[in-house]
Amino acid sequence: MLMRTDPFREMDRLAQQLMGPSTWSRPSAMPMDAYREGDEYVVAFDLPGVPADAIDIDVERNMLTVKAERRPAAKADDVQVELSERPLGVFSRQIVLADTLDTERIQADYDAGVLTLRIPIAERAKPRKISIGVGSGRKEISG
Asked: pTM for this structure?
């Protein structure tokens, strides 16, 4: 159900992860899982430590964009940081959704640092039986 249109995007995402943490001017990608569950397509993003009000989800045509921002925690003046490995800044991910998904009815839930989007499969894309009509008479071709 996901369509990857840019083969270099994944390479760019991996390079960003290897080159260091994100900043507000250089967003970093966020890890995700995507799978089909019954008549829904589920996409789950890991966003630990990000408050729900710092997450932005947009859909324009078939492009799904998720942005989140993790700000540094407020510290007292007498605190000296010894180690800081958790990335801060902006995280973003864009996914091209297939035409078979109903982008009008996306549901989003955020629990325990995981953003879960449930995207229903469009009715027109679901398998269905086609009935066969039986003609009421013989047709002859005359020439």
From this structure: 0.68
